[in-house]
Amino acid sequence: MKYHIQTCGLLIIVLIVLTLNSCSPPEETRLTETNITRVEANQVPANTQEESKPALPASEEKAYLSGDVEIVDTQIEENNDRFAYELKLTYPQIANPKTLQERKFNSHMQEMMKSNAKGFNKFCAKNMKYPNGTERKGDFSLSTTYKVLYASKELLSINITQESFTGYLNSDWSTMPITYDLKRGSELELADLFKPKAKFLDVISSYCLNELKRRNPGCGGIDGTGSWNGVVGNPEILEGTLPKAENYSGWNLARSGIQITFGEYQIGPGCLGLITVVVPYDHLREILREAVRFKPVPPTCYTAVLITRLPYFNRTGA
Predict the structure, then answer these.
(1) Which of 136, 209, 288, 295 qualifies as a cystine partner to 241, CB 3.0-4.6 A?
(2) Integer Cα distance of 160 and 134 in angstroms
(3) What angle do CA 248, 149, 43 make, to 5 degrees?
(4) Buried (b) or exposed (e) across 42-53, using 16+ Cβ within 10 A?
(5) Which helix (H) or strand (E) holds 160?
(6) pLDDT tens digits for range 149-193
(7) Do 195 and 287 meet the contact criterion of CB atoms below 8 Å apart?
(8) What are 41-68's pLDDT values in tens digits?
(9) How far apart are CA 209 and CA 213, in angstroms?
């Protein structure tokens, strides 16, 4: 009797294992997810973030990652004692590029980052003394991270975020977005997405202004003397959202629309950080070029990439 009970228990365990295995995704799906995970390999898991890094709130925007292109991290690192600075630039490269255009993208990113590093070197060398003539004691620093917001065999759209410290109280944040046509082997301009003579800046400007007023992002404590309750009624929001090309140079393609990143101080005080607004493709459908198509992919083929807002101060995220 005891043997019979043990045999039944063994059979039940075998059935459970077989059921679980039957629910596992096919091997091809698991490989795709692994590749896409490498796209975001530069991110630090939430439970291992350094204390000096801010807690990053995120919107609901997701990336379009078709799985046709694998992106890997490449880094330029330097600790320069002579000019007192640290450098860590992380940027994307296409793994095992197969076409001339993919190789051109890799070269384009390499040259961009090398130029960035060279420029920072010159800046640090020129600023070895403070304005009062005393020798600079603290190290300057420059670092970049990136997020892939749109990746297919035709297009790559990547938002590179730069953090720099050059002697002021806090770090400065800026964005270097790039959208690259892998068919032509060149970077796209925002105007390339729209029909000739389309007033796309007016449409995008109107949408962004209304969305920012609706969300009314704010931050507390300006210079420790007061509070700032939001962008509504602030003159900077009107100037920073005018339909000018320079106001919308920080753009990327994302899964559901064109993401606009507003820089520090563009629509309000620096404590707002980098603010993003996603203009839905449906809102732009009538003025988009017919050749511009954005097709969704099944949920199993992509990993969500969250768009973040980086606060300007309060570096511990408290």
Answers:
(1) 209
(2) 34
(3) 115
(4) bbeeeeeeeeee
(5) strand 155-165
(6) 999 999 999 999 999 998 877 888 999 999 999 999 999 999 999
(7) yes
(8) 333 333 333 333 333 333 446 788 888 9
(9) 6
Residue 136 has pLDDT above 60, yes or no: yes
In a domain, 18, yes or no: no
Q: What is the pLDDT of residue 15?
A: 42
The CATH number of residue 152's host domain is: 3.30.565.40
| Assigned domain for 5 exists | no
Quote the CA–CA distance of 203 and 200 in Å, as a whole number.
Answer: 5
**Mean predicted confidence (pLDDT) in 200-208:** 97
Position 1 in a domain: no
Q: How many of the other CB atoms lie within 10 Å of CB of 305?
A: 24
Range of the domain at 189: 27-44+53-301
Nearest-angstrom CA–CA distance, 183 and 2: 70
Phi-psi region at 219: left, alpha or beta (left = phi > 0; alpha = psi -120 to 50): beta
Q: Structurally, how many domains does the chain consist of?
A: 1
Q: What pLDDT digit, counting tens, does each position of 226-279 carry?
A: 445 566 667 778 889 999 999 999 999 999 999 999 998 888 887 788 999 999
Tell me how far CA of residue 117 lies from CA of 77, 109, 136, 143, in angstroms: 9, 12, 20, 10
Q: Is residue 9 within a helix (H) or strand (E), and if so which, with residue range?
A: helix 2-23
Give pLDDT, residue 102.
Answer: 97
End-to-end alpha carbon distance in the chain: 63
310 belongs to a structural domain: no
Amino acid identity, position 310: L
- Backbone phi and psi for residue 94, each to the nearest 5 degrees, phi listed first: -80, 125
- Smallest Cα–Cα separation from 247: which of 184, 204, 188? 204
Number of other CB atoms surrounding residue 70 within 10 Å: 17
Does the structure show a pLDDT above 60 at 35? no
**64 strand-pairing partners:** 150
